[in-house]
Design goal:
The complex is a heterodimer of chains A (435) and B (259). Chain A has nine helices and 18 strands. With 435 residues, chain A is an alpha/beta fold. Chain A has two domains: 223 residues, Rossmann fold (3-Layer(aba) Sandwich), CATH 3.40.50.300; 121 residues, Distorted Sandwich (Coagulation Factor XIII, Chain A, domain 1), CATH 2.70.50. Chain A has a six-stranded mixed sheet with strand order 5-6-7-3-8-9, sandwiched between helices. In chain A, strands 10, 12, 14, 15, 17 and 18 form a six-stranded mixed sheet that branches. A three-stranded antiparallel sheet of chain A has the order 2-1-4. The chains are: A alpha/beta (435), B mainly alpha (259).
Chain lengths: 435, 259
């Protein structure tokens, strides 16, 4: 045995941590004289306070120098976890240990006073971080320069925009020489250029061997930076480990949730919609609208995936069918079926009908289904509305169903634009390096 | 208690910065600014002076205005410290819930910033005494000692009150009303000697009344405060400190959840 393996030191070491909040305190009902007196006279009465369990037996051991991401829906306990690590909250059971100087980017500029100048606030807030006057003076210029606030640093911070305020807070926090950096959804400060700068800075700190705990909904950042990801759901650790795998599981979970939500919304709006008769179109946003003389009626519109399941959330690479069920009320000859896809912001992404494409419409009988098969959706992230219509070639509507349903596209890669063509990357190296 | 003071010493830079902020904030945006440190007590004194010099009279062996000012200045420190200190933790809730902030600094800052105001006004009192032709005493040198005792007493009380106020916000209102009452139970407007013998105990066992008498002795009468008075106030101050730090420590962990 020459050398024993060096034991790992954990920068953040949480073992079996649980935290519950008293319902009473959550509702903000601090006690009154009356309730205190009542309690005083009935000391043996068991307290009927109810507790909300926010975290349950969470273990999180982060070795020095590694980066961990915490993801989960709102209210899942992420922020409580951070506050336990910073010591703002005390755990009900379990142990919390943090080694090294912590910079908590929880609420940027929390200690700033609006009536003081940027300069005064930097000195004051840096003192709260535990820096001595000399240390602050040494870094002052760097802090101001990074925040890009040199011109206004001697104005009271109440005159700052919220972006400027947060920039100063961020700049200050990263200039305090932290060993451990806790970031709670604050990388969205200021304009795009500053966000990029912040991300660079965090990447730099990471490279310098600092420990990083990232709480965010920015899954892309988590995937890029973190060695491990913790997915918290309802106070429990639902999944943990390799970022790719955990994030995929989380994405899938989110999509399922979104799907449910879209379907419920649809059902509600259908219930609210009066049926029968000719309705006039009312110009209002994304509400479902319907008009036409109903010689031919659209009885339902569905989005079906390859497994014949109705869905509302798709990936860009998914194949799907739009199924329009119809019923013929009056015998008419001139019939055109059409569909249209609109992005949330009104951009028409795609629109077509059987007349444009010279697709002959066969004899329709009394009822049936028209299927528009898409072999690959090819749209990028966003919310889309689907229109379905049956009308005459001259445009006279039998049944025009605007925003018949809403669906969403979620892609794993943050590409920009509207569409993703089927594609691949190739590299043709003309001359190999001399080996 | 000792650990509380160690923590305060460790954060002395922060405490000092917050005291300065407190003082700067009070007069920021006002034209007379810093002068209000003198004008506030002077105006208050003028009111009492008119009432008690001309409407109702007390026989004092010293110039009544000076007697009044001598008791009023330390009292303004007491009310300022206790009123601001009691609500200090609640009103700075964002610091407790959003950052790792050593909470007991907040009431401490309330005590110290009001002490600073007192220290600014004290030379004015001594100057008035000199200009009025009253004797200048060597016993003025006892004043720093009295100030230390009062600081300790106020620290203990504000720690306890600030912590209790987080749990029960009535505390700040109760404190404000008790202070009004306490003002009349201190020999500030009237000399100790005018109180009937049977009621003197209400002064002799009231640490704030005793402190007032100690200032009178050292500044106006030119002799050291009675040893019994010093002993009494010392015991009460240390007791208050002990209880204050115990109360504060036992509530501290619940602050972030209650705010």
């Amino acid at each position: 045995m020459a050398t024993s393996r060096p034991s790992i030191t954990y920068a953040i070491d949480l073992v079996d941590v649980s935290k519950a909040f008293k319902r009473k305190t959550i509702r903000g009902g601090y006690s009154t004289v009356k309730s205190s007196l009542v309690q005083l006279f009935r000391p043996r009465q068991p307290k009927r306070a109810t507790y909300t369990q926010v975290l349950r037996d969470v273990t999180l051991r982060i070795p020095s120098g590694s980066s961990v991401g915490v993801i989960g829906r709102n209210g899942s306990g992420k922020s409580t976890l951070l506050k336990l690590i910073t010591g703002i909250y005390r755990p009900d059971c379990g142990t919390v240990q943090v080694r090294g100087r912590v910079a908590a980017l929880i609420e940027l500029g929390a200690g700033f006073h609006p009536d003081f100048t940027g300069r005064e606030n930097v000195y004051l807030a840096a003192a709260m971080y535990g820096l001595s006057k000399r240390e602050i003076a040494e870094r002052f210029d760097a802090i101001v320069e990074f925040a890009e606030l040199a011109e206004v640093i001697d104005d009271p911070v109440r005159t700052y925009s919220s972006g400027m305020f947060m920039r100063l807070g961020f700049s200050l926090a990263i200039h305090t020489d932290p060993d451990v950096l806790l970031i709670d959804e604050v990388l969205a400060v200021g304009d795009a250029a500053f966000v990029a700068k912040c991300k660079d800075e965090v990447a730099k700190l990471r490279k310098a061997g600092k420990t990083l705990l990232l709480v965010t909904h920015d899954l892309e950042a988590v995937e890029r930076w973190c060695d491990e990801v913790l997915w918290i759901h309802g106070g429990d650790v639902r999944e943990r480990g390799e970022p790719r795998r955990v994030i995929d599981a989380y994405r899938e979970f989110l999509e399922r949730g979104e799907e449910q939500q879209l379907l419920t919304q649809e059902r509600e709006s259908q219930d609210a919609e009066p049926t029968g008769g000719i309705e006039t179109a009312t110009p209002c946003g994304t509400e479902s609208q319907r008009w036409g003389s109903r010689e031919v009626e659209i009885t339902s519109v569905r989005l079906i995936d390859r497994g014949a399941e109705e869905r509302r959330v798709f990936h860009p690479d998914d194949a799907l069918d739009i199924e329009i069920a119809y019923a013929v009320r009056e015998p008419v000859q001139d019939i055109v079926f059409g569909i249209g896809i609109q992005r949330e912001d009104g951009l028409i992404v795609h629109g077509s009908n059987t007349d444009i494409e010279r697709e002959p419409v066969p004899a329709l009988g009394r009822s049936g289904v028209v299927r528009y098969t898409i072999s690959r959706l090819g749209l990028l992230d966003g919310t889309y509305h689907l229109d379905a219509a049956v009308h005459r070639a001259d445009g006279y509507p039998y049944d025009y169903h605007k925003n018949a349903l809403t669906f969403a596209v979620r892609s794993a890669h943050p590409q920009v634009g509207v569409i993703v063509p089927p594609h691949r990357w190739e590299f043709i190296v003309a001359e190999a390096d001399a080996a | 208690m000792i650990s509380d003071f160690a923590a305060l010493a460790r954060h002395r830079g922060l405490v000092w910065a917050l005291v300065k902020r407190h003082l700067a904030l009070r007069y920021r945006g006002s034209a007379l600014g810093f002068l209000w440190s003198f004008l506030n007590p002077l105006c208050l004194m003028a009111v009492y002076l008119v009432v008690f010099q001309y409407y109702m009279r007390f026989e004092t062996e010293h110039n009544y205005a000076i007697f009044l000012f001598c008791g009023l200045l330390p009292w303004l420190w007491v009310t300022g410290a206790l009123n601001e200190g009691t609500s200090s933790v609640v009103s700075s809730g964002h610091l407790i819930t959003k950052s790792m902030f050593p909470a007991h600094i907040l009431p401490t800052v309330a005590v110290l910033s009001n002490l600073m105001n007192f220290l600014f006004a004290l030379p004015l009192l001594l100057l008035i005494i000199y200009l009025a032709g009253e004797p200048v005493h060597l016993s003025w040198l006892y004043v720093p000692g009295i100030i230390v005792l009062q600081t300790l007493l106020l620290l203990g009380l504000t720690w306890a009150l600030a912590a209790l106020n987080v749990r029960l916000r009535d505390v700040q209102h109760i404190t404000a009303n008790l202070l009004t009452m306490l003002f009349f139970l201190c020999p500030i407007l009237y000399p100790h000697a005018t109180v009937p013998e049977a009621w003197r105990f209400t002064l002799d066992w009231n640490p704030f009344a005793v402190l007032t008498m100690m200032y009178h002795a050292a500044i106006l009468e030119g002799h050291a405060p009675l040893l019994s008075q010093v002993g009494f106030v010392t015991v009460v101050s240390l007791g208050a400190l002990l209880i204050g730090s115990l109360v504060f420590d036992s509530y501290r962990e619940t602050f972030a959840e209650l705010l």
